[in-house]
Amino acid sequence: MAMYEKKINVFLEGLASDAPVPGGGGACGLVGATAAALGSMVLSLTTGKKSYAKVQPEVDELIQKMADYKRKLLLAIDKDAQAFRPLSEAYAMPKDTPEEIERRDAVMARALADAAKAPLEMMELLLETAKLLSRISEIGSMLAISDAGVGLAFCRAAIYGASLNVYINTKLMKDRNMADSMNKKAADIISQADGIIVPSYNAISTNLKGE
Question: Which residues contact 149 (CB under 8 A, 6 or more apart)?
């Protein structure tokens, strides 16, 4: 059974255990999928309301997109776990002879690249989800605007969390060009996310406080 198909309490029990997966990456995927679900809820509460009739076509489009990103982020939970397993196995490889060291280094290089790629791809999905949530906060039902804000906050937390899973792997890479490239991409996503999420969150907060 895929991790995303398990009940929440089973997933959390696994997260709390000493098992290597799920870990922080899987948690970020779950948080991101929850953010997308919140966006879908806001859209559902907007659908069919006369006061939002002008934006209904866009709402219909966003419903499909949000469902797609929720699905992709759930799948990313398993992708993250699958990417980590080879790395865990590589750490256990023998390194007593020059040949074993060379073989281990080659396997480790591939495993580190894959282990960093998975959270980087998750960050990209989270960024796109945040963009959609920002728009939803502008056109969605005002009765659920706080839920759009929660979704945005979740996306930001998950993006920051996933970035740490990039950095912990790039730190060990011997190919520093690859490491620097991945680090830069992660930092760029964080910068883009902050530029979208923070203003949207502040606008929602200001609206709710009536300022």
Answer: 137, 200, 201, 204, 205, 208
State the Cα–Cα distance between residues 195 and 193, nearest whole angstrom: 5
Topology, domain 24-204: Four Helix Bundle (Hemerythrin (Met), subunit A) (1.20.120)
- Non-local CB neighbours of 17 within 8 Å, separated by 6+ positions: none
Pull the structure tokens for residue 94.
């023998």
Would you give the distance in Å from CA 57 to the centre of its chain?
27
Helices and strands, counts by H and E, the chain: 6, 0
pTM: 0.92
Helix-strand-coil split of the chain, %, nearest 5: 85, 0, 15
Residue 128, C-beta contacts closer than 8 angstroms, at least 6 positions apart: 69
R_g of the chain, CA atoms, integer Å:
20
Q: pLDDT in tens for each of the 211 residues of the chain?
A: 676 677 889 999 999 999 888 899 999 999 999 999 999 999 999 999 999 999 999 999 999 999 999 999 999 999 999 988 888 888 888 887 888 888 888 888 999 999 999 999 999 999 999 999 999 999 999 999 999 999 999 999 999 999 999 999 999 999 999 999 999 999 999 999 999 999 999 999 999 998 7
Cβ of 56: how many Cβ atoms within 10 Å?
15
Secondary structure class of 127 (helix, strand, coil): helix
